[in-house]
Amino acid sequence: xxxxxxxxxxxxxxxxxxxxxxxxxxxxxxxxxxxxxxxxxxxxxxxxxxxxxxxxxxxxxxxxxxxxxxxxxxxxxxxxxxxxxxxxxxxxxxxxxxxxxxxxxxxxxxxxxx
Length: 114
Fold this sequence. Notes:
Elements: E1 10-16, E2 19-27, E3 32-39, H1 47-57, E4 68-75, E5 87-91, H2 92-102
Parallel strand pairs: 3-4, 4-5
Antiparallel strand pairs: 1-2, 2-3
């Protein structure tokens, strides 16, 4: 996967009635909205999750019909479908590799604390 640059100046959770989107990030300058769904389950994510995210995103009013929409789905167990234009799929292995490259992480267990 090529590198993708994600820039935003607003981020948060969104909900309306019975619909919820885990994370929405907005790049006001370029009129881009990133709609993010996070799935932490043993099952691989099916395409229906993407379809559902797109349906929920239709209710988000900011710059509707004047914005670019990018969908990101994070999954612990992978996917049953492939990434496509403006759809980014991030599995656990990708998250771990990103963290290893970009963060210094030290795991401390109770046995280590004195």
